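Reagents: none. Just compute today. N-acetyltransferase domain-containing protein.
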Amino acid sequence: MEKPEVDEPSQSASFEESEIEYVSYGGEHHLPLIMRLVDEELSEPYSIFTYRYFVYLWPQLSFLAFHRGRCVGTVVCKMGEHRNTFRGYIAMLVVIKPYRGRGIATELVSRSIRVMMESGCEEVTLEAEVTNKGALALYGRLGFVRAKRLFCYYLNGVDAFRLKLLFPRPELDISQMMMAHRDGRQEHSHDHLPQDQCCEDHHHH
Ligand SMILES: CC(C)(COP(=O)(O)OP(=O)(O)OC[C@H]1O[C@@H](n2cnc3c(N)ncnc32)[C@H](O)[C@@H]1OP(=O)(O)O)[C@@H](O)C(=O)NCCC(=O)NCCS
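Predicted 3D structure written out:
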């Protein structure tokens, strides 16, 4: 697949993958590092309240990648009850250009997803611009599928795909299923709801 010029060797940093250190959000000193990366690399503008909302409430779901003391990548997420499902949501993912194509984003996202799974999430969702080949390929490799297309989702007018990763749930036994049935719960019911009820996640600025 065609890679953008940012992955040209001339612009790549030289490093061993073992030199990249991954840490979960550790406090206020990490906030400007996250903000700088996201502001530089994502099209969507976020206010400081949006960043704080995520990292204060779910510090264990945000990770930073460092190389020799320099922050080179970050992922910011949340999780919670959503229409009868407990689900994780990946809000922001960025790796700076010289460090791309070496698996750093995959490692960041995998760490967040692992914590989400351990916390009882049944699925993980996110939105990506339909034109963002790199992100779509990355999440596709991790098992995400395209759940729907959101028209004109971003402030720049671009459509988004909502991507979804469903976890296998072998632990769900028959008694739980019967209880769920009695509660009138319906698996995947959120897939068929009006769009405005599904799009709350991104618009906090
Ligand atoms: C998307 C992004 C986070 C990927 O970071 P990364 O560290 O380079 O990703 P990885 O090295 O973990 O990539 C893993 C796989 O994703 C796919 N991929 C990543 N970038 C790609 C690109 N530009 N073109 C095609 N496939 C790409 C490849 O399948 C890759 O595996 P491979 O290297 O074995 O081919 C990075 O390009 C970025 O920060 N982009 C700008 C911000 C952004 O778009 N964020 C996502 C918003 S939804």
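Confidence is low (pLDDT under 50) at residues 1-10, 185-205.
Action item: order primers for follow-up constructs.
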